[in-house]
Here is the input.
Amino acid sequence: MKEQLISAWSWFKTKFLASYRALGLPSFSELRLAILSFSPRQRLNLSLVGIIFVISFGVLLFRFNDSLVVEVAIPGGSLSEGLVGIPHFANPLLATSDADRDLVALIYSGLLRPSENGTLIPDLAESFTVSEDGLIYTFKLKPNLHWQDGEKITTADIVFTLKRVVDPILKSPRRANWDGVTINKINDSEIQFVLKKPYASFLVNTTIGILPKHLWEKTASESFSLSNLNIEPIGSGPYQVASVQKNSAGLVNTYELVAFPDFALGLPRLETIKLSFYPNEKELLSDYSLGRIKAVGGLSPDSLKIFNQDQISRLPLPRVFGVFFNQNQARVFTNTEVRKALDLATNKQAIIDQALAGYGEILDNALPPGSPGYQANTNQNPFNLENAKKLLADKGWKPNKDGILEKKVTVKKTTTTETLTFSIYTSNAPELVKVAKLLKQQWEVLGASITIQVFEPSDLSDNFIRPRKYDALLFGEVLGRNPDLFPFWHSSQRLDPGLNIAMYTNIKADKLLEEARATSDPEQQKEKYRLFQAEISKDTPAIFLYSPYYLYFLPSEIKGAIFSTITTPAERFENVYHWYRQTDQLWRFLAKPQDIINN
Here is the structure.
């Protein structure tokens, strides 16, 4: 700003002198002689007039300048953030952990990108069109797109990425989004996707990060997860890798990222971002207390007290945590009254208060609050232990000598005794272990005998969830930006790789899910989901518990971070290129509109 004022003054002085001479006015030496001829009193009066003029002119100039000057965000500054978890796959096709997905959000770009107001905006894409029947999506790339190694981006990179994502050898978690989609490369800048059936939420799938073909094409699918590009990735997102540090065990503990100047949405304002990864929260909090990190992602409710509460963002996540019953594994759940009684005996608010320190919202159905089509199920009874006991007693359940409820059951003229005994299977995450213990306490008061089975996430997934070998699964489902319940509840998705972990079967519900995913009319979709929720409430294939908040601490000196709807923790970075910590003042006509802070 100082340089601009000096330049402006020099220009003004030159123009003023030229204009003064052109008017034939007295020279400065002539004016000086005239002033010397004045009496002392006349010179004093003239001096006072001059002082008043200078002050008035200065005030007017200051106000005029102030009306033209705006504060703008400028490039510069850094952010250091700490996270619990170790990244293994900074790769949009393989990312499974929050640590992986955070890196993908910072380093890669998709055709579209979620924005801070919850909509999708063009990223690599310049524009797109959708056919009237909702089956054909045509995208055109922006001109002069480049990878972080300088190579040009073309639609060949998109074709390569999407062919690999559906490769069964890779077992990509994004595979289901692209199965059955025909990909047609029109030319180097245009590409077309053809669907077999209309799918209202398809555009969300185009946010997937694109891989550079020229770097990955020689890597066999069998070796994809072993490539060093998973650790030192090259993408086209807002930030690129400057350095990676590993500990003595060879595990990554720090990424140093720098702004990518050719990012499709413009140069990011923060110059560097440093992400530090920790095996546990204790080590993370220790480094925070020492000032080594300034921001913290994924805080646990127990750690919140050491942070400035005004700087903690509480971001609702479209995640559905609940207990999913496996009626094929545990026959006791084939009794409708058992499922409904367990639901009645579940104090969900107590679980949120004790396991999440209150940072969550009660769920009573398959859609979390805020999702299109969500509505509170007013017909569902609230927590009521006495009603739960009565429901079971009316159906013949009685306590045995150990206080465990049991019931005589006759199948094919053979009478057996069924006991209200089962196991809760869950992941070795502190929050889930706490929830499992609370459920055990609540349900044992009802008369159930509960065993808790805790496994590491990969063990739970590979050995129990995929083969469907669990009694009751305490688990969280991650819904998308426009929730599509088909993969989680349609009967065709009961077996792996489907996500129907309750193995729910209901012909009416299937039809509603098919219609909801096909319609492009938001009101029709809401109505289909309303009716579907009524079916779920009637059948009780699961007990829905809560939808959590993502707790994010960001220092006050970081400005421009706007959070609205996020579907994964990594989406807090979707507008990271707008974040800033340094500002300057410019005349309005010299400032870019997107950089102006005060209008």
